[in-house]
Amino acid sequence: MTHLSVICLILAAVLLAMACVKADRVRAWRESLNPSAPDVPDAAFVVTRLVLVTMAVLLIVVGLRGLAVEEDAEWSDDELTSAVEQAVAALDGTSRLEGASGSASVVDQENATMIENEVVEHGGGDAPQLGVDADPTAGNTARDSTYTVTGDGAGAAFCVHVQRTRSKEHDRLVPSLSGGEGITIPGYAYTVTSRKGAC
After folding, report:
1. 6 is in which domain, residue-wise?
2. Count of domains for the chain
3. Is 93 exposed, middle or buried (0-12, 13-18, 19+ CB in 10 A)?
4. Does one domain contain both 99 and 181?
């Protein structure tokens, strides 16, 4: 998007430069190339200038809008900092139920997705609605894990630490269809903290 916007602005500058060329210079150039060519009336130059200026203005509008869209699609350091701080505050102390698969890799991916979604949600009205990445650190376990959180366009990075502990008070009992004891879905509590810088 940025390259296209820059090209539009460059083309607009070229068109404006063409519109500023004097009629006498164009006539002299045409005569040097083809002495027998008919003379171009002044009205033709006026119309040509109007067309060139109009096209240049349109290209400037398209270019500036493209740059604005590109800026809106990127995170600033301040936006990411605020969003991460709020996301960590919202996640710290929360509880979740564990499904049938509680492997470390599944929990790791679930944590990463949870962090990314929470950061985007707390980005604020001007922040992008995507472009956040929570990259798991090697050696993460289901109980203790860290993630480097970055945002497209932002130079800042944050290390988010997630500790997941078993919490029986958050268990949920699912009644059995056959009338038996039912199934207990285990609950877990989360302690989430962050610091500036990659993990």
Report:
1. 2-72
2. 2
3. exposed
4. yes
